[in-house]
Amino acid sequence: MTVHPGFTGEDQPKASIFNQCIRCGFCLPTCPTYLETMTETSGPRGRIGLVKAVAEERIDLLSPGFVEQMSQCLDCRACEAVCPSGVRYGQLVETARTQIQRARAGSETGMQRAVRGFVLRTLFAHLDVMRAAAAVLRFAQQTGLTALAGVAGMGRQAKLAPKIPGAFFVPRGQRVEAKRPAGLAFLHAGCIMQVAFARVHEATMRMLVRSGLSTIVPSDQGCCGAIAIHAGDMALGREFAKRNIVAFERSGADVYVVNAAGCGSALKEYAELFDGDAEWAQRAAAFSSRVRDVTEVLDAMPLGEPSRPIDARVTYQEPCHLVHAQRVSAAPRRLLQSIPGLRLIEMNESAVCCGSAGVYNLTQPEMASRLQRRKVENVTRTGATIVATANPGCAMQVAAGLHDAGYDARVAHIVELLDEAYG
Ligand code: SF4
Ligand code: SF4
């Protein structure tokens, strides 16, 4: 007898999705956790079977095996991209996590509830709080206080934290005009990107304007909501989504540009998030249809020839949410190959997750470390001196792994390299 029988209420994994699985196993060799463990339950087919077993009340929603597998999955969507049956696996795992989270809410300790509430409902909901927290981290990094993190048992977290630069990129309604504007781009400033990767946003704005798009950074935008959705709080994800939909509608922009793959995939899926919502479904679908990754935009615009060579061996780390969720793979490579002097050396398994996956490297440190080492081995075999990527999580995870391995390579966003090449 199950104590938490089946799925209940809103946001249930849909039988129409999990019953689509024909158990062919094509997805297995693409799944990072299956590659590491070679066990059926740690692969997509096994996890879909578990979701079905909970739906049919054969196992408990909070059984340790089910909770473990829903947590161990990276939600990297590699399985979804190769599935011949079109199983929308991301939907399954995200709704399953929502169900687990809701069932567990009553048994959380006060401290667990407070930490969760602070991270999701304060830090990511109020970006001024995130900027204040980042300023404290910057102070700790500059004064060497982060060394004390090891004493407090938080050495790993301190190592993975990005180096916080002197200035943040705060959306304040900035606007830069292109010479002969072909359209108006809305730049998504995000959350972590604002405080840790201001230089990437600056490079993105310069490249968009160079490409012929006037660019704005409206102040009423916010976090995309991916962090809440992946953590099983779909309701909060919808709150975040509404803010961005309204901000884009008000802006009058033609395209919503994102330079973080994880955010881009969440923003492109707002339509699904509001599926069945009479008030928001249409607005969300209209919004999502205008979202583009920056590499898609630049690849389609007339940029001309870059003037400054980058004489380096470069390898490309494909962010899962760009290649698998958004199916954008050729555009980033074309852009890199357009840079004179740059030699693109493909690594093995460039599309296998590096173990970052949002906060996965904090919640599943052992598997995250295994995948990080796997990625670092594949990078080092290329002899690359630059690792290009298009997502902040990958950049931090790969940089920390290379540092640990003593391998000297720069990790850069594609737009930074383009910005340098275009002078
Ligand atoms: S590839 Fe698709 S249909 Fe085949 S086992 Fe995997 S999820 Fe099921
Ligand atoms: S989302 Fe990624 S980790 Fe999860 S089952 Fe699919 S391939 Fe494996």
Describe what you observe in this structure.
This protein has three domains: 15-107, Fumarate Reductase Iron-sulfur Protein, Chain B, domain 2 (Orthogonal Bundle), CATH 1.10.1060; 109-301, no CATH class; 304-421, Rossmann fold. Helix content is 52%, strand content 9%. The mean pLDDT is 92. Helix 23 links the parallel strand 8 and strand 9 (410-413). A five-stranded mixed beta sheet has the order 1-3-2-4-5. Strands 7-6-8-9 form a four-stranded parallel beta sheet, sandwiched between helices. The protein contains 24 helices and nine strands. The protein has 423 residues and is of the alpha/beta class. Helix 12 (198-211) packs across helix 24 (414-421) and helix 18 (294-300) crosses helix 20 (330-337). It binds iron/sulfur cluster (2 copies). One iron/sulfur cluster binds next to helix 3.
In short:
52% of the residues lie in helices and 9% in strands. By secondary structure, it is an alpha/beta fold. It binds iron/sulfur cluster (2 copies).
Please indicate the percent range of residues in DSSP E strands (runs of 2 or more). 5-15%
Radius of gyration (CA) equals 21 Å
Unreliable stretches covering 5 or more consecutive residues: none
User: Biggest sheet: strands side by side, in what order?
Assistant: 1-3-2-4-5
Classify the helix fraction into a percent range: 40-55%
Number of strands: 9
Shape type: globular
Q: Which ions, cofactors or small ligands are bound in this entry? A: iron/sulfur cluster
How many structural domains can be distinguished in the coordinates?
Answer: 3
Question: Mean pLDDT, as a whole number?
Answer: 92
Total helical segments:
24
